[in-house]
Amino acid sequence: MQMTFDIPVVREVDVLVIGGGCAGLAAAVSAARHGAKVLIADANNALGGMATSGLVGPFMTCYDPMATRQVIKGIFDETVRRMIAKGGAIAPENVKSGTPPTAWRVKGHDNCTPFSHEAFKVVADEMCAEAGVEVLYHALFMAPRMNAAGDTIEGAVFATKMGMIEIRAKQFIDCTGDGDVAYRSGVPCQYGDEAGKTQPGSLFFIIRNVDKAKLEKICEEKGPAALYFQADVEREIEEGRYSVPRNKVALYENPDGTFRVNMSRVELKDGCDPFELSAATAKGRAQVEEIMDLLRRLVPGCEKIELVSTATLLGLRETRRIQGDFVLTGEDILGKTKFDDVIFLAGSSMDMHGGRAVNYTPAQGEAYSVPYRILLPKKVCNLLVAGRSASLDRRALAAIRVMPPVFAMGQAAGTAAAICIEDGVAPKDVCIAKLHEKLLSDNVVLA
Length: 447
Description:
With 447 residues, the chain is an alpha/beta fold.
């Protein structure tokens, strides 16, 4: 897809980051700190993506599966520590599984990080300003402008309040989550499973007036699993009093004492279809009312809850994944494959949603490594792709689509893009030793 009519070129930069979620923030700040002239563009009015506009939280674990060592640091950890200084987050080392900030989940939930989405917005703006990143809000990516050969992006076209505009760059980073830039540039992509089916979406929301003491008493008397109310929810579904197809209560306590609710479940055939996405968002909001009613009737301590806010963005767990020359697989993660081009370590579990339940495979043992090559798409030579649309199979996606690994992917992509500018090379030709040197200097754990 390419625009053919006259569009004003309003900026020329070294690196253009498209998509301002966790990956985009890390990519933009990292590239700028390493000397590149950077602009980040997003369709929303804040950076953070699902962490802010999507109300998704907490950050899942940044530790190894044994909960003994923090393995995702770098820009992610800096963002967390800055929020802590504002009273907007709780340090991951202070959060243990089976407690309110983890929704009383046990497996794979040590060292989560509760945070305030408002604190995230402010910290993200501050980090970009300090690094010299120009931020463009309210800019919806429309199409790339390709060279004659079709293998290099020369500019990106956005829809804005002033009309269509173009921004030109030398290197591009796709952090849209849906692989929009890659897909529209001709990169081959996989959508969902072999039949095109994806994991369902969820609309997060925040509630207040939870009597936490009642819930903690149940936890003390019956154990954390009692707070899932699974048998009760399934009975409500079977007897026709509840129609949301998810069989557990999930309330995550925020630093301010409110709770995020992750119980909505919306099936989509195509999360990139604007009409279907609109209908799914409306359905998610309708589910919120039903979930609120269920909580008031079923869960002690929730009798007087009130709705604070629903997310602006529907949470999508899966849409497009790019095809690269290398694809990270679930077997690589489970087998702890070692990669010479490692860009970060992770300890996230495989979390595959579908039907009423979650197919959850807890990570075990040491952390696993993730390679640089997953950021490199086929066909387009000056593009990196960071986030859940990287070159992954579905099982690998189920592990590293959560926000701490997404931060780490973005940081590696931004650092690599800056090296491309400095050395005059394409992303596939980045010197891995130089990339490792810069990542290590920026507090990234590689071994």
